[in-house]
């Protein structure tokens, strides 16, 4: 790679029974996602409901943008283990609401936001 990435995008994809989707999204919105911003160093966090890819299976993505690889690494070794433990307790394979999780980490080399979105406080992508 020629230089350090501008940002790091971390995505957690959850596949779960559609009947449990609303509760899972409520849990994310009731503090989990905000904690990653407030305590974990992410500069942006959002929850995306992707709909059902298979009948009865919902897909929810939690997307986080960190200002640098170092900030993401600090999250991974600091807050992440505690949050993952809580998630596994609530939604792990032996819970009443099992979720299949996958994770993706990508370097963001550039991004742009339209003028109207910037006025509304959207993430500008500037380091």
From TrEMBL:
Top-level taxon: Eukaryota
InterPro entries: DUF4286
Protein name (record): DUF1330 domain-containing protein
């Amino acid at each position: 790679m020629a230089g350090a990435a501008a940002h790091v995008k971390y995505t957690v994809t959850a596949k779960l029974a559609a009947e449990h989707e609303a509760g899972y999204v409520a849990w994310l919105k009731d503090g989990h996602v905000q904690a990653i911003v407030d305590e974990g160093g992410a500069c942006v966090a959002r929850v995306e409901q992707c709909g059902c890819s298979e009948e009865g299976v919902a897909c929810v993505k939690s997307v986080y943008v960190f200002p640098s690889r170092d900030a993401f690494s600090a999250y991974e070794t600091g807050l992440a283990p505690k949050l993952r433990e809580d998630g596994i307790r609530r939604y792990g394979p032996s819970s009443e609401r099992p979720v299949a999780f996958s994770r993706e980490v990508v370097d963001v080399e550039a991004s742009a936001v339209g003028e109207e979105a910037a006025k509304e406080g959207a993430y500008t992508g500037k380091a």
